Amino acid sequence: MGIRYDGKARVFALDTPDSSYRIGIIDEEGFIAHLYYGRRVPDTDLRQILRVGFDPAESFARTGNQVKYAGTLPAEYPAGGTGDFRRPCLTVETVSGARDAVLVYRDHRIYAGKHRMKGLPAVYGTEKECTTLELDCADPVLGLEVTLSYTVFEQLDAIARSVSVRNPGGEPVRLTSVLSACLDMPNRDLDVLTLHGTWSSERMQNRRRLVWGKQGIASLRGISSHEENPFLALLEHTATQTQGQVWAMNLVYSGNFLAEAELSEQDQLRLVMGIHPDGFAWTLAAGECFTAPETVLVYSASGLDGMTHTFHDLYRAHLIRGAYRDKPRPSLVNNWEATYFDFDTDKLLSIARKASESGIEMFVLDDGWFGKRDSDTCSLGDWTVNEQKLPGGLKRLSEEIHRMGMKFGIWMEPEMVSPDSDLYRAHPDYALKTPGRAPALSRHQLVLDLSRREVRDCIYAKIHAVLSSAQIEYVKWDMNRPLTNVWSAELPPDRQGELYHRYVLGVYELQERMLTDFPDLLLENCCSGGGRFDPGMLYYSPQIWTSDNTEAIDRLKIQEGTALVYPLSSMGAHVAACPSHTNSRVTPFATRGLVSLCGCFGYELDLTKLTAEELAEIPGQLRAYAAYGDVFRTGDYYRIASFAENGEYDVLMAVSKDRRRAVLVYVQVLSRQKRPVPVVYPRGLDEQLCYRLSENGEKHSGAGWMHAGLPLPQMKGDFLGRLMVLEAEEEAE
Ligand code: GLA
Question: What is the pTM of this model?
Answer without folding.
Answer: 0.97
